Amino acid sequence: MRNIIYWILSAFVTLAIAIVSLRYVTNFWLLTFVYSFQIHLGVVFVAASIVILAVRRHAYGFFLLLVSILLVAHGFIMLREFSEGERVADAPPIFRLMSFNVAIDNWKNSTAITDMVIASNADVVNLLEAKPLTFHLQQLFKAYPYHIGCDHGKDSCDTLVLSKRPFVMRQVASIGSLRKDRLVISSVEFGGQTVNLVSAHLSKPYFDDYQMGELEDLGKALRPISGPLVLAGDFNSSAIAPSIQGFLREQKLKTIAPEPATWPSGVGALGIAIDHIFARAPLHLTSLKRLEDSLGSNHSGLIAEFVLDGSGKISSAN
């Protein structure tokens, strides 16, 4: 009986490991979401392999344990690839940015979210699925005199970018063919330096191959942009998903690793980071934190601070 249980468990774990390991063979869109959970699934496989070895000590059980450990280890290695590394800023941050997916049906917490945004002391705020904030827009615009989005009623209120400083340039566009106006490109001047700010909201990776097309369009939009760049938003995938990895390599974007887990917000640090804030040199993140309260959203918000190379010559925006 123990032998039968051993081989049944081994077969299930082998199949699960094989599915996760397909990332090393092909970037199949249907499995992109699974790839985002490689570290979490690897830990589960390690635990399952230990159970298998407890049932029966056999070489194949040790093989499964080794492969599981390698999956976990490689997951952490992949996260480090896009890390800013150790940076010591000699000057205060030039600006602070908040990015938060409000959740489109989160009406009951709209007042609390509005108060949180105003109290954040962020210079720029990137809000996604902002429809529940429709009745608080004037309060937000009083604190943030410059905005992009939500100009034509609640039905058009999806991405909302708020700024305490005037926009040097602003553009709203679409990426992919599933949803409209989920790409906002703007620039703001901080201490004499123009910083490019990009907000993006990608589709879920298991919605056919729409996310692949969105990443392609996003890449085309970013290529002509020169100078300091911030990309923030909801990618619905972690940085270790193969499609996101390829995009980050091409665009030379970095973040702070490990990124704070943002989804699902209810599990805190045990979740995965699918909401991101990236920077391209000469701009660098010096701080990236998860907001303490998700205020009814299934996403946790992020707040980040930035410095520029040679930023000792630039005054703080605060």
UniProtKB/TrEMBL annotation:
The keyword Transmembrane helix applies. GO terms for molecular function: endonuclease activity. InterPro entries: Endo/exonu/phosph_ase_sf (IPR036691), Endo/exonuclease/phosphatase (IPR005135). Keywords: Endonuclease, Hydrolase, Membrane, Nuclease, Transmembrane, Transmembrane helix. It holds the Pfam family Exo_endo_phos. Residues 98-299 form the Endonuclease/exonuclease/phosphatase domain. The chain crosses the membrane at residues 5-25, 37-55, 62-79. Signal peptide: none annotated. This is Endonuclease. It comes from Rhizobium vallis.
